[in-house]
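The records we work with from here on pair a chain with its fold. Here is one such record, which you should read through line by line:
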Amino acid sequence: MSETVGISTGIAARYATAVFDLARDGKAIAGLEKDVDALDAAMVESDGLRILLSSPLYSRDEQATAIAAVAAKMKLSNTISNVLALMASKRRLFVLPQLVATLRAKIADHKGEVTADVTSAKALTKAQSDKLAKTLTAQMGVDVKIKATVDESLIGGLIVKVGSKMIDTSIKSKLNALQNTMKEVG
């Protein structure tokens, strides 16, 4: 399984490098970021798109026609539209999630940003998210962009991951630590 993931990541990295270089040379990083955000949102929201990307039942021509229609409907740039068409013709649309993640990382690196994965028990308000980003930016010394997710099993608190660092202030982890301590005593 990990061999397949490695191959997908390698393919996505090559496409991402080419797309990013084209956007950087054409001074179109902002447009690329908009396209990446749109594709990411579409993959999350559309079961049909996810099936199109991963199903071996569609022929190359069917994938190419469908992805061209999706790109046109989403008004994606010519660069991204052409790359999607190329990926469909090579039957490599299955790597689109890795491509989006790799492009997002390259864009953030170019802008001097770091992404913090924040998991909370309930959705953060705009004010809370902004305050957390400001605090993390002050601590890290670089711009921090928040990627928030919700996990109600945390009960309360946050789990913040920035690079290889993790801060877990969730009530769930505190209860687990208390439970382990009580087991050691008894």
